[in-house]
Amino acid sequence: EKGRGIGRRAGFQNHFEPGIYVCAKCGYELFSSHAKYAHSTPWPAFTETIHADSVAKRAEHNRPQALKVSCGRCGNGLGHEFLNDGPKPGQSRF
Ligand SMILES: [Zn+2]
């Protein structure tokens, strides 16, 4: 299997229920397809998480415009939140 694009790199995967993306390790709900939008990068982009505690964020001193994002339940690494890089001013891109 060649990892059909979505999510493998970022640590989450498509849920069995349409439109919900969950942690690849523990299955915690992370993102909704409602918050998904087209972006030039090859992996899915979202503006917000499903639950306030869906992800844990940690600042990286060498990247002031990005936060390291991990699963809020199990700590699985998910990638980054890019501040002010969403479709509208002030929104984030996950
Ligand atoms: Zn998890």
TrEMBL record:
Keyword Nucleus set for record: yes
Broad enzyme group = oxidoreductase
Q: Which UniProt keywords apply?
A: Cytoplasm, Cytoskeleton, Immunity, Innate immunity, Metal-binding, Nucleus, Oxidoreductase, Selenocysteine, Zinc
The source's superkingdom equals Eukaryota
Among the entry's GO cellular component annotations, what is one? nucleus
- Where is this chain primarily localised? cytoplasm
Which positions fall inside the MsrB domain? 1-94
A Gene Ontology biological process term: innate immune response
Give the record's family classification: Belongs to the MsrB Met sulfoxide reductase family.
Q: What is this protein called?
A: Methionine-R-sulfoxide reductase B1
